[in-house]
Every structure is written in C-alpha cells, then in structure tokens.
Amino acid sequence: MYPLKQRVIAFAEVIFFMGLAVGISYLGIYELAEYLSYPDVVNFSFWVFFAAAFFFFFSPLLAMLFPVIFTGKQISVTSGKKLLKAVFIILGLTMLGMFIFSERYTTSLMDKGYTECRGIPSGWMPGMAKKYAIEPSLCAQY
Predict the structure, then answer these.
(1) What is the rounded distance in angstroms from the CA atom of residue 138 to the CA atom of residue 41?
(2) Which residues of 24-54 are buried (b: 16+ CB within 10 A; e: fewer)?
(3) What is the pLDDT of residue 142?
C-alpha cells in the first residue's frame, strides 16, 4: 500500500505528463494541418506523425499509475501486460502510419509540382527533414 504522499506525487506526475503528451500531440496535429494546406515551402519530417499520435502511445503508460493513485496498490501483472501490449500495438501502428504518410505526402508534393531542395533545412539535424518548394527559387529564400 502506497502512502498518501506518494499517491499525491503520482497524481501530479500523471497530470504533468498528460499535459505534456497533449501538448506534443497538439503541435503534431497543428503541423500536419499545415502540411495539408500545401504552403509554398514545406519542411517535411515524418516524425510529425509520431508527435501527432504521441498521446495515444503514451496514455497506456500513464494508465499504469491509476491503481497507485486511486487504490494505493500496484498495478496487477495481468493488467500491466495488457497495457504494455496495447503500447506496442499502438507504437507499431504509429510507425506504419509514419511511413505510409511519408510516402503518400511526398508523392502528393511531387504531383503538385514541388521540387526537393538541396541541403539540410535550417534548424534541422541531417536526415530529420527535407525541404520542398513550389519553385526552385524559393529553396534559397527560406
């Protein structure tokens, strides 16, 4: 049995990390919406899809703290296994979605006449994003 102090700390942690997960997902969804508006210049990263799905991936992990908060007891082994299985299923679906979205979106960019800019987009690590522009002259401006 966990004492009240640890239960309150666990509750505060759940609130903090749930807010963090919602914030990350919000930013990912916001960026996806920006991608789908097809601006003149796009800095595309397939990790944005992961950010959008982060809340769904992270929620089962936070749910493991609910028994501690509400009953003061550890989560049962069977419940923990089920939640971890859900995490891995959601993670697998998210990874699959990342690659499918990446392929479909970059294909749609090429179909709309975008060109892939050379070099690394400003502010990104190598290999993390690609820059696409509707006109090659825009590649140097942004």
Answers:
(1) 7
(2) bbeebbebbeebeeeeebbbbbbebbbbbbb
(3) 64
